[in-house]
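pls ignore typos typing on phone
phosphoenolpyruvate + seq
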Amino acid sequence: MSKINGVAASPGIAIGEVLVLEEELSYDRVKVEDVAKEKIKLEEAMSASKKQLTAIKEKVKAEMGSEQAEIFQAHLMVLDDPELISAIENKIEAEAINVEAALGETIEEFATIFSNMDNEYMKERASDIRDVGDRILRNLLGLEAQSVADLEQEVILIADDLTPSDTAQVDKEQVLGFATKIGGRTSHTAIMARSLGIPAVVGAKELLEAVETGTTVIVDGVAGVVIVEPTEEQLAEYQEKLADYQKRQERLTKLKELPAETEDGHRVELAANIGTPADLDSALENGAEGIGLYRSEFLYMDRESLPTEEEQFEAYKEVAERIDGPTVIRTLDIGGDKELSYLDLPDEMNPFLGYRAIRISLERTDIFKAQLRAILRASRYGQIKIMYPMISSLEELQAANQILAEVKEDLTKEGFDFNRELEVGMMIEVPAAAMIADLLAKEVDFFSIGTNDLIQYTTATDRMNEHVAVLYQPFHPAILRLIKRVVEAAHKHDSWVGMCGEMAGDRRLTPFLVGVGLDEFSMSAVSIPEVKEVIRNLTIQQAKEITDQVLSLSTSQKIEDFLGSYC
Ligand code: PEP
Ligand code: MG
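k done
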């Protein structure tokens, strides 16, 4: 038995057998007599791979939408590449070697050519080629294909890292939980795990050395630990914890139809964060009253070109129609840990401090305008609101609003109907914006505090870096003071203020946030019932007292201990 510590990324407990992703595949290089036989094996493995990929593509398309399915279309194109096929066949023939070696070596040659190219998009193709090569090799070796989308048995996924797109394809029925070596609580992989409701631990450094496929592990997504080869007693203890956890979830589900209001009638709004329309089911199941953050960038990811205005319009309309409440669509927030290969963004020393989000939109007005047009056109179908990410100055906000005004004028001239009263807001996730919230509040209808980035920028702590995870402190007095400042500034100018960073879903902080006057809380859908339970057991007077106490404390630890005593 060994216990590996990581970061609690998504609550819940999973007990099961491990599937390690991206194990090194090995094969021998041997001389063969019968090259024709090797070529037939290649043909068979290629056609098996094609069948698997087509099935996965269809499944992902039906369950998650066409953007997610694009990645498999790209893989199918690699499989059909005549140059690749003839290069492998030529190698078998010229060197009289086995198909596994000819395949492995040719794939590596092709992938190397792509990864040496200057263009980011082409570089990305190298990993597609290696992925496809891996699949063909698995079929040749008679090993099961590794895909998180088409698993045949229940597993716990263990990997160095899972990309947000890996996570988006995860088969919820079969993946009991997952653990990765890389990542922090607010890395996008962790956020997606929470929106899928799968227990997860990230940043578990010694993980890969400790397990192999088939090892039994326990993933405790509440405490942030992975127990490898648990003893009988530990298994029994965790079976009990799991049963308790499930019972608690059942109790919380009963709160679904009840309002988020304190004992004495102070009402707030509880909304969900979503990445794609596929997350709507979970939002509705958990009783979200609206969508407080629609991370529109996921519409732009895992594809080969920008989504058209029409595609975006359809996606926004779908969300607006399905949600009987507000939908806050955040404009493109690419950069940081979210890449768009086809935009060919520059490599940067500090991507989180670089060319990202609104900074890109204000320069690439073609992209920004197409998105604003799609959002405005969809605004007829529900209570859509627009929100800008990463604003750090009044000039940026005014420039964004100016472009929005131009787009409205264009649409009016073209005869489109849209909601002219549509609310416009911005995220407060840069300390500079928090400090000038009073100036910004005059130009928007609302703020939403993005604590994931606000913590990283205020405490100078990379949200992705597990080595500094202890410094990434939501309880830091500086963060709590900034929140208070922003809420007061918004209310003074009759704007409402929400929070869509992960702090909004941390039940320990709920009394503080209610007491400080937050109007809307938007979070991973699975956290909504827990937060609602805390709110319904409070009075506004108690919440305000807790807030005052918290603001008088001097360290993160004191604040965390104090708030912990209420949960
Ligand atoms: C945030 O920064 O708090 C936020 C909600 O945005 P994201 O996590 O997508 O950066
Ligand atoms: Mg952010």
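The first helix runs from residue 35 to 64. The longest strand covers residues 13-20. more later
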